[in-house]
Structure formats: structure tokens, C-alpha cells
Write a structure and sequence with these properties.
GO terms for molecular function: glycosyltransferase activity; metal ion binding; UDP-N-acetylglucosamine-dolichyl-phosphate N-acetylglucosaminephosphotransferase activity. The chain is mainly alpha-helical and 448 residues long. Helices cover 67% and strands 4% of the residues. The protein contains 16 helices and seven strands.
Amino acid sequence: MARKRASEPATITTTKEVTVSTNKETKPPPPPPQETSNDQPIAPPKKGFIFKLSLLLIAPYFYLLFFHYQIQHDLIKPILINAGLSLAGFFLTVKMIPVASKYVLKRNLFGYDINKKGTPQGTVKVPESLGIVVAVVFMVLTIVFQFFNFAPDSNWLVEYNAALASICFMTLLGFIDDVLDVPWRVKLLLPSIAAFPLLMAYAGHTTIIIPKPLVSYIGLKVLDLGFIYKIYMWFLAIFCTNCINIHAGINGLEVGQTVVIASAILIHNVMQIGVSADPEYQQAHAFSMYLVQPLLATSLALLSYNWYPSSVFVGDTYTYFAGMTLVVVGILGHFSETLLIFFLAQVLNFLLSVPQLFGFRHCPRHRLPKFDPQTGLLTGTNDGTLVNLYLRMFGRKTENSLCVHLLLVQALGCGICFGLREYKASSFNLHRILLVASAGPQLDGPIM
């Protein structure tokens, strides 16, 4: 988020000292400060925009869930209960954000929008760290949902609670970062600790499918990586938790990319449930949906305040929370490789950022585009971010237009992932058909 953190360490104490001093000199106390625009309630949520965006993102998901695939009632029921709780979480989050904004402003947790510097909006105090509201509502929803779906002896309950532990731990560390402004070296370390409960509870496969062109060289179609696979998931948790925080700097981008990825994960889950007949495989993807639906609902509520012009900042609390939640659903849903492709835009942004993040080039505190207050346009700088690269390639844009373009790039990356999976499935089916044709009646059984 394009912000400059405020620093007002002792405003109340200083005022009291001045008042006491003037009383001793028998002078009348100074008049109370006039209420400024910074003390006014935040702008109302952008309900119309969120409603249209929700229809665009959620309509394909519900079409696949109710019409395209014949999904068993035992799977549909908990998904709908979870969706109902998520809808309630959306409205609760919308109501709680203005309340929480007043509290964080009182504690001087606010910032100024750097991309509006030189305009009246650039002098407005914007409440910081409002991602804590989303995280709290999410945790409440997911804990309540346990009563509707999991028996005390359920095998999934261990993984579910381990997931909540990792998410809660990362949310706490993110809020600490917002308050204490933790250095980057420590930020890279925090997710590695928060991922331990998740990795310890993981009981899924540790195998990978070898691409067909490499099978003749390796001699295996499926390779069991064992403990190495858990190391991969550990690094994935570190990357995904930080990459949303790195791919930021304009209003709505952090929450927007989370919403796009979460929508893609929902569609992927329902597609895998629909085409599979394996109950364990279906349950793994349903498990993922139980966490993604509340994330999507609460994030849409936050986006209604964070979309341009932003009236709240999400803070590192949200980026860490969202990143860890997406990692959890990918790992425990057993599609961590697919999840990495959904993060294609973040991978590109990270590769562009490597020279500055690792000290090969100077890394300023805010790697933001340059704002022209006269025209209201952003110009790309030489900093290694996808935001600046896009501006250098396609020219100056307004902040709102730039965010829309970058979210379309995010959606394109998710579309590429679906295309790769479809190509892989088609290639496998074609190979299977040719194998059956060549074997004749000797090979019977279903064609996948």
C-alpha cells in the first residue's frame, strides 16, 4: 500500500504538560482543537463496485457447483453452510471496519497516501492495519464452522486446526510488524516459523508426476520426494506470505490480487470435485473451499473500503494473513503446484525485485511509481517491481486504471494455469486412448 507511516509519539502527554503550565501562570486554557476532516468517519463502502465484481467472480463458481457438475449432497451441504457463514462474515466485516478505524486512529496507526502527495487527498489520515478486522472475522467464521462439519474424531480436524494455528500466528506477526515496523530480514523469517504447525500436520502425498518428455531420461513416471517435498512446501509458505506484501503500492492491489486468486482456487476446487470419483480427493478440495470462501467474502468487504480512492490501508497484517491462508488451502488441498502457477504475477514481481531485495541494487523504502499531482498520472521508475515495469512498457496511467490492468494480468496468469491443466488432462486422455487402441481387447477398463 502506498503509504507513509505517521509518527506522533507523545501528542497527549505534551498537551497535558502545556495545560498544566498555563494553569500555573493563571492563564485561561487554550481552546480545544477544531475537528478536522481527518477526524471524520471514513468514506462509505463502494457497494455498487463490489456487487458487480462479486457477480463477475462468483457466478462461474456457482454455475459449476450447481449446474455443470453432479456433486453429491453430502459435499454440497457443508459447502453451502460455509457459504452462508461467509456471507454473514461479509456484512459483519463491512460494519466493523469503520468502528475499528476510529480505534486505530486514536492510537496513531495511520498513514498518508504517497500516490496522492501534492493533492488534498494526500494530507488525509488514512487508518492503518485494517486487515486485522478481516483476520478476526475469518477466524471466528472458521471456528464456528467446525461445529457444523467436523466430528470430534475426524481425521481432517487435526489439519483444520493446524491451518488455523498457522493463520492466527501469521496474523499476529503481521500486526506486530505494522506496529513495530520489523526489518525485511525478519519478515522473511516470520512465515518460516508460522508454517511449522501446517507442515507437521500435513498427511498428504509427497510425489510429483514427471513430465512426459523427461520420463525416458529419468525412468519414472511418478517420483516420491519424501522430506524434500515438505521443504518445498516450507519455501512455498515463505514465498506466498511475502509476495503479496511485495506486489503492492497502489490502492486495492493487495486485496484485489487476493480476491482474484481466491476466486480461481474456488473454481479449481469445484472442477476437481466434479471430475473425480475419489472421496478422499474430493474431500481435500472441499476442505480447501471451507477456508477460501470466508477469505473471499471478508476480503471483498475490505476491498469495498480499500478500492481507489482508499479510505483504509490494509497493512502487513492483511498481506501476511492472506498469503498464509492461500498457502494453507493449497497445501492441505493437495494442489500446491497449481497454487504456485496461480501466483504467476507474484513470481514475476519477485524475480524483478531480486536485485534490490538481496542488496545488489539500492532498495528505497517505497519502490513506488512517481506521481504527478498536476495530471494525476503515475510514471514508472527504475525500481524492480511489476507495477513500475507495466508503467514503463505501456505508459503513464491513473492509479485506478493501473490497478485494474494489474488485476487483469493476475487473472490472465490464473487463466494460463487452467489452460496448462486442461492441456495436461487432454494429453493424458489422448495417450490413454492410443494405448487402448494399440492393446485392443487385452486392455479393458475405463478411459480417464
